[in-house]
Amino acid sequence: MSTISNHLPTAELQALDAAHHMHPFTTNDDLTAKGVRVIARAKGVYLTDTDGNEILDAMAGLWCVNLGYGRPEMGQVAARQMNELPYYNTFFQTTHVPGIALAKELADLAPGDLNHVFFAGSGSEANDTNLRMVRTYWAELGKPEKSHVISRKNAYHGSSMGSGSLGGMTYIHEQGGMPIPGIHHIGQPDWWSEGGDMTREDFGLARARELEEKILELGAENVAAFIGEPVQGAGGVIIPPSTYWPEIQRICRKHDVLLIADEVICGFGRTGNWFGAQTFDIIPDIMTVAKGLSSGYAPIGASIVNDKVAKVINACEFSHGYTYSGHPVCAAVALENLRIMHEENMLDHIRNVAAPALQNALSALEDHPLVGETARSGMMASIALTPHKESRAAFASPKGDVGYMCREHCFANNLVMRHVGDRMVISPPLVITPEEIEVFATRARKALDATYADLK
Ligand code: PLP
What we know:
Elements: H1 10-20, H2 28-34, E1 39-43, E2 46-49, E3 54-57, H3 60-63, H4 72-84, H5 97-109, E4 114-120, H6 123-140, E5 148-152, H7 161-166, H8 170-173, E6 183-186, H9 191-194, H10 200-218, E7 223-228, H11 244-254, E8 258-262, H12 276-279, E9 286-289, E10 301-306, H13 307-314, H14 328-343, H15 346-365, E11 371-377, E12 380-385, H16 401-412, E13 415-416, E14 418-420, E15 423-426, H17 434-455
Parallel strand pairs: 3-13, 5-6, 5-7, 7-8, 8-9
Antiparallel strand pairs: 1-2, 2-3, 4-10, 9-10, 11-12, 12-15, 14-15
Helix pairs in contact: 1-2, 4-14, 5-14, 10-11, 15-17, 16-17
This protein binds pyridoxal-5'-phosphate.
Residues 62, 122-124, 127, 156-158, 229, 233-234, 262, 264-265, 290, 301 line the site of pyridoxal-5'-phosphate.
Pfam family, one: Aminotran_3
Organism: Sulfitobacter aestuariivivens
Protein name: Aspartate aminotransferase family protein
């Protein structure tokens, strides 16, 4: 029986953590001297650490705690489901009610004829499913060579071998032999950093047309699918020009290439609609979902698949699945999350209250000498830091140093705001109030001021 609890002194918890706990995306040795932050509890948009600091979480954990922390209904539903049916699998011709109900709910919510759901335990797993599913789809249609998948540089689709290969982050590819063969990356629609003298609209079209060039280079008969996040999240909240997605969809349809929208961050209200695909007016063949599906209260992901693809996959034995595909407790928690979103008219709150307040806060920060642009889609946003606004210049210091400094000042001011390179990213719980957004803005400005002072 473990005697380790919140009541131990923070230093003792930190030492135990450093001795035994390997953290994701972390140089663990650095934590030995620095000491990891230990989060004890959370309520609404605030985290409390073991030193009693109340930290405003402007990242909703990892872009996922959309309902905010500490919703008792979610715990009650999980406990009820654990007592009734804690586990059964969905292999071998069996199912259970939470799995049936969640699949139906997702089919009803998704646009177009995305009527079929394959469950996974996470976004990475769901994207691995997609990779195998699109290749299997074309193989079943007698075209096994139509197997290449095109993605974008600086995309994030997970960190397993399949999903990490689909992603376009070179620092991930450098470890463990990625990308696996048959995956290609074209340029991202990041006008601020890469658009040069082009207008946003022209740049959006130019980047979309890289897809057509890549399809023609590989031969359309060899290309299975294109995958993209409606708004790149982990890449820095890169909001594509309005011309980008319609052109991508046109090219996919013209060349008979399946379109996968990775909605792991964008799904469930984050961009102001149920799905980012709706915000950008496209209808993909497959959508990846996770994170906001359960507001992060339980690990669950899924691929939502249209009639065309499901017809082929359902006719064969797709030899794929996870022990926890459609886990009944996770499915029940996800259903409760969606019920609360409907009951509380979350989309109305985002569109009419939270997003306008966030926009005001961001606009007010634009006068800060370090702030180049602010960008926002619904409740995901970013602040580009720059030494020179007009030329959209990058800092001379290694990319990310200034962003890292700003992130550390945020922590010191009890604010969680992440950095991606020298872009600060924001994705608070969707339930955040205008008053809480004011707290965010005050703490963010303090962090920016302190960063600016350090640079002098
Ligand atoms: N896809 C996107 C767009 C993501 O942002 C993430 C995680 O951040 C993933 C996939 C991977 O999801 P998970 O961490 O649940 O495996």
